[in-house]
Amino acid sequence: MEKEVAKVRKIIHVDMDAFYASVEQRDFPELRGKPLVVGGSPEGRGGVVATCSYEARAFGIRSAMSSKKAQQLCPYAIFVYPRFAAYKEVSKQIREIFSRYTDLIEPLSLDEAYLDVTEDKRNIGSAITIAEEIKKAIKDELNLTASAGVSINKFVAKIASDINKPNGLTFIGPSKIENFMEKLPVEKFHGVGKVTAERMKMQGIRKGSDLKKLTEERLTLLFGKSGKFFYNIVRGIDNRAVKPDREIKSVSSEDTFSYDLDKGNELYERLMQITQSAFKRINQYQLFGRTITVKVKFADFKIITRSASFEHAITDETEAILAARTLVENADFGSKTVRLLGVGFSNFHEAKMRNKIEEQAKLF
């Protein structure tokens, strides 16, 4: 009996280009071609950049940056109040375009999603052709641009979508994945944050080729459970399925230290960095939780978690850092040293950024 050959998956990652800013520039022609910042405030009083136009990015402005820093980089930047109802409506229209081709759609946020088109509704067969048609429909019907990555799994497709932004389309086929991953700088690996990238470089790991030299056991020792993930993805292995109607219930970040830490200043410095990393991610998702959880793994591998819930959504990074620190300070470590710290947000506020926006509204 002939052995059945596994079907190669066809995955597309679609990422809208500067989504909120592009919607603003589309709806208000006077903003086109100008350095535009969505969110924050020109006075810089606690505001945070939700996103910005490519004209603003040319000055070094980035998402999750303080508005004070943004204005320093570009004194002529235009700050606008976010219109989340409008962005959500456009996101629904984009989703409708996706659904013409597949029901296997996994949204990551309002402006990006994975699509599994291994079997597509229109029997087109080519994932590249489908990505081209989706991009064209978004442009023709919504007057917006999107970038797309096409590959055989989610990880590579997501990286591919970022290569030729804006308005790009990149295909990385099965025969090219390993070579592509070997040449990729570690900071470009989705899931490798700034802190982890620096730890990798301290170990002499600068590119995928360096990562590939290490055994799974060594990577697990260095990076905990992420080690197995790194071992697989540098070889182009990612078997995660596209999950329709994925609901984000929690967002977290964690780091395994290269040496165990006592409860003290260095531990709190690392805790602050991890909290900032997690907070940056919830900013990207535009989800702000009422619950913050700290995970502590000790040198003996025992794990404890401590949580705190608030009546309001945590929309300020400083508040998040202080809450995380308080949880750690109140935890009984005894004489144990710490191997890993993690910080997560959950219990997301129904209105997402409502608290933040209401606080900032008077600044405009």
Automatic annotation (TrEMBL):
Which positions does UniProt annotate for Mg(2+) binding? 15, 111
Question: Catalytic residues?
Answer: 112
Instruction: Give the top-level enzyme category.
Output: transferase
GO MF term (any one): magnesium ion binding
- What does the entry give for GO biological process? DNA repair; DNA-templated DNA replication; error-prone translesion synthesis; SOS response
One matching Pfam family, short form? IMS_HHH
* Compartments, record wording: Cytoplasm
Q: Show where the UmuC domain sits.
A: 11-193
Q: Where is this site: Substrate discrimination?
A: 20
Q: Which UniProt keywords apply?
A: Cytoplasm, DNA damage, DNA repair, DNA replication, DNA-binding, DNA-directed DNA polymerase, Magnesium, Metal-binding, Mutator protein, Nucleotidyltransferase, Transferase
Q: What is its EC number?
A: 2.7.7.7
| A GO CC annotation given for this chain | cytosol
The source's domain of life comes to Bacteria
Q: What is its main location?
A: cytoplasm
Which reaction equations make up its catalytic activity? DNA(n) + a 2'-deoxyribonucleoside 5'-triphosphate = DNA(n+1) + diphosphate
What cofactor(s) does the depicted protein rely on? Mg(2+)
Keyword DNA-binding in annotation: yes
According to the record, cofactor stoichiometry and binding are noted as: Binds 2 magnesium ions per subunit.
Function as written in the Swiss-Prot or TrEMBL entry: Poorly processive, error-prone DNA polymerase involved in untargeted mutagenesis. Copies undamaged DNA at stalled replication forks, which arise in vivo from mismatched or misaligned primer ends. These misaligned primers can be extended by PolIV. Exhibits no 3'-5' exonuclease (proofreading) activity. May be involved in translesional synthesis, in conjunction with the beta clamp from PolIII.
State the oligomer form and interacting partners.
Monomer.
Spell out the family assignment given in the record's similarity comment. Belongs to the DNA polymerase type-Y family.
Protein name (record)? DNA polymerase IV
Q: Which organism is it from?
A: Pedobacter xixiisoli
Which gene is this protein's source?
dinB
